[in-house]
């Protein structure tokens, strides 16, 4: 198998003398003893007894332990497939006797194609928010396959929750004590990440609100509303993708709650995750409403500024209309126009034009239109 397939630390095998391992560390999977060192994640390989430590990248032959179960006979609790090749998928299908969904099937939105039970094997596909800190956030489909005592995750992206959870597993082997533990640990990590994103979005929207409603004399005032609109649009896009991910997680929680194979403590943990999903969804709805409000407010401010510009042109047109009329009258080429031969005709015409322009401006100013 390629190094893109990872195994979480397996359960500790039965030992004739439990006192030799009082701290419950996974034998053969820990770099250090009870000191809490990093846990080696076993990379899938041929049955040649080779263990790979992800912390160092070094490979070394596994030392035989007569009292332990051979590693080749162990069942992994977690197989993480990141961008697997067709050969890797075929080997997983052969090894676990399952049919792994294709990448196209993972993108289907109907519920029956995302959450189903096939001969006791649970197939669960959810959309997880990825690249949330960039200008182009996206949702990526990730499939969880629960096969008896093994969890298989199939993904074609590397979102932050998976990176974080793998680091935590390397530090604490107990997080990967069973397939269900890994599944709920990943779901909790995804939900925590969505909560962090919603908190950050709320803070960003508060800053945008101050900018939108700031006075033109305020240092934070931005005359160019295009940047504000782009930031509001990004917040709305991020909120929409987060709500899509939360909806998928909520459906996954409902699907798991109907499975009789889950133990009581596991269902209690699932209820906690479901409550968190509901509360974050409500917060995401609040953010969506906030985005709509700020978008309407920004467009309203733009309309006000445009109206002020149009008002200036309207006042200018009204102010210069009387002088234009006077100039047009005296520009007519009639033979009988007494003012043309008058000595003060020209100064009078100029004075009338100035007066006809000043009077409207004075009137508009008095009315507060300027």
From TrEMBL:
* Keywords associated with the record: Cell inner membrane, Cell membrane, Ion transport, Magnesium, Membrane, Transmembrane, Transmembrane helix, Transport
Q: Which residues cross the membrane?
A: 309-332, 344-364
Listed Gene3D superfamilies = CorA soluble domain-like, Magnesium transport protein CorA, transmembrane region
Gene Ontology CC: one annotated term:
plasma membrane
Query: Region entry Disordered: which residue ranges?
Result: 1-76
Membrane topology is: Multi-pass membrane protein
The source's superkingdom equals Bacteria
Here the segments flagged for biased composition (Low complexity) are 23-44
Q: Where in the cell is it found?
A: Cell inner membrane; Membrane
User: Catalyses which reaction?
Assistant: Mg(2+)(in) = Mg(2+)(out)
| GO MF entry, a single one | nickel cation transmembrane transporter activity
Q: Coiled coil where? A: none
Q: Which family does it belong to?
A: Belongs to the CorA metal ion transporter (MIT) (TC 1.A.35) family.
Record function comment: Mediates influx of magnesium ions.
Q: What is this protein called?
A: Magnesium transport protein CorA
Q: Which organism is it from?
A: Thalassospira alkalitolerans
């Amino acid at each position: 198998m390629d190094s893109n397939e990872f195994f979480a630390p397996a359960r500790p095998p039965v030992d004739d003398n439990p006192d030799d391992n009082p701290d419950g560390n996974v034998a053969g999977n820990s770099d250090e003893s009870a000191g809490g060192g990093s846990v080696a994640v076993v990379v899938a390989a041929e049955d040649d007894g080779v263990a790979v430590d992800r912390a160092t990248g070094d490979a070394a032959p596994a030392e035989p332990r007569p009292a332990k179960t051979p590693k080749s006979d162990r069942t992994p609790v977690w197989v993480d497939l990141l961008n697997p090749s067709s050969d890797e998928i075929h080997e997983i299908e052969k090894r676990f006797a399952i049919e792994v969904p294709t990448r196209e099937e993972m993108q289907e939105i109907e519920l029956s194609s995302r959450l189903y039970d096939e001969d006791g094997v649970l197939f669960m596909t959810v959309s997880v928010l990825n690249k949330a800190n960039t200008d182009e956030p996206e949702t990526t489909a990730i499939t969880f396959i629960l096969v008896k005592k093994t969890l298989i995750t199939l993904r074609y992206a590397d979102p932050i929750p998976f990176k974080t959870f793998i680091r935590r597993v390397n530090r604490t082997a107990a997080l990967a004590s069973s397939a269900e533990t890994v599944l709920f640990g990943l779901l909790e990590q995804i939900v925590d990440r969505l909560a962090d994103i919603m908190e950050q979005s709320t803070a960003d929207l508060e800053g945008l609100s101050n900018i939108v409603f700031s006075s033109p004399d305020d240092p934070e005032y931005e005359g160019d509303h295009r940047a504000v609109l782009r930031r509001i649009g990004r917040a709305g896009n991020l909120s929409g993708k987060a709500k899509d991910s939360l909806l998928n997680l909520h459906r996954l929680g409902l699907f798991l709650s109907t499975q009789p194979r889950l133990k009581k403590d596991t269902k209690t943990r699932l209820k906690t995750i479901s409550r968190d999903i509901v509360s974050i969804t409500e917060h995401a709805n609040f953010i969506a409403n906030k985005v709509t409000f700020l978008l309407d407010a920004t467009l309203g401010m733009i309309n006000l500024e445009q109206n002020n510009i149009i008002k200036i042109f309207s006042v200018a047109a009204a102010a210069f209309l009387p002088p234009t009329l006077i100039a047009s009258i005296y520009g007519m080429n009639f033979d009988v126009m007494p003012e043309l031969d008058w000595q003060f005709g020209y100064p009078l015409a100029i004075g009338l034009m100035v007066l006809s322009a000043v009077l409207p401006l004075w009137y508009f100013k008095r009315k507060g239109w300027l």
